Known about the structure:
Layout: H1 5-24, H2 39-58, H3 66-80, H4 88-111, H5 115-141, H6 158-175, H7 182-200, H8 203-212, H9 214-218, H10 225-245, H11 248-254, H12 257-262, H13 269-282, H14 293-301, H15 316-344, H16 348-365, H17 374-388
Helix pairs in contact: 1-2, 1-5, 3-4, 3-15, 4-17, 5-6, 5-7, 6-7, 6-8, 6-16, 7-10, 8-16, 10-11, 13-14, 13-15, 15-16, 15-17, 16-17
Amino acid sequence: MSGSPRADVLSRTAWAALCVFVFSIPWEKSIQLPGTTTLSHLIGILAFTAAAAVAVRRRTVRPPNLALALAAIFVAWAALTWFWSLDRDSTSLRAATLAELLAMTYLIWDSCRERVRQRQLLQAYVWGAVAASASAYVRYFHNQQTYWRRYAAAGFDPNDFGLILALSIPVALYLAMRPGRARWAYRAAVVVVIGAILLTASRMAMVATFTAFVFPFWTWRQADWNQRISSAVLLAIMMLGVFRFAPSPSRERLATITTEVTQGTLHNRTTIWKTGLKVLVQHPVAGIGAGAYPAAVRPWLGTPGVPGHFYVAHNTFLSVLVECGAVGFIFYALMLGVVAFYVWTLQPAERALWTVVLVVWAVGVSTLTWEQYKPSWLILALVMTEWSLPWRQAGSNQ
């Protein structure tokens, strides 16, 4: 019986597992279990299993929306590229990863049907970012450098880590718009996250962080004086951090943003992009196979010379285009287009939030390969669930 106490316990357990899973995403690589599995991956498996049990008990599942359907087609096409892939082992691994991410997206879509649950997932991500930031601070104080005088949570590249944290800033500021004492906790979370982003010395993450602060000024009229003043103070803290309070190596590296963009190669990214375009000309329609970018550019670029490292696209859109061809890129672009349309139909505060989150994401993934990263698919899932809420519940920030 779906209304029995046992069913309610199962449902609450499944939801709690999903919240813990989202909480784990910002630090997912930091805790490795024996073998190649992370604690976050194990939590995800448990959450999916519990949710599947709930679905079986209630005997219904939520029909997919258009964006989710397009995501499924994209994943299916990525798997299909195995037949002509230049690196079938990498394509098999990428296809399996994308299938898991699609399952995660559907799990959130099926489970998150109320506004309170939507906010709980947002809260989980913010506090996960705070926990990940704390890990970066510990590594900094113990001088455990990820790269030369750059820091991140264990297991993370500083650039990836910086973007993961930057995405939490507009979410925290959105949650801080609600009255109550908790709003100060979210503002404190922003301070913690900003400090960790400065430790990464990631130029892209800093640009994304400045972009994140578009949110409080977009919602200036809707916010009370408390939110306005605190947002301005937080922005000032970030600017002081960049120019004064951050460790000197971080300040020196961040000071090269303008020069690197106008005169540099974005740390050799432009060379990697030009090589990818050469590959694209040879395989324009069907692509070279999902995950096969490193193998395709190796004849031109070789390898970085560091064990375990190889040249990825460092641009999500180029990566999808080269690996999955024009066909796969069309499905991916249509999925993003539908998501953008969903955002446009939202209520003002939510529209501002998700527009800024998407722009922060787009800024970041323009220099990162993120089509197979959980935060990208989490954004997709949360936009879909947010879009479905206004049709059932009127009002914003209630």
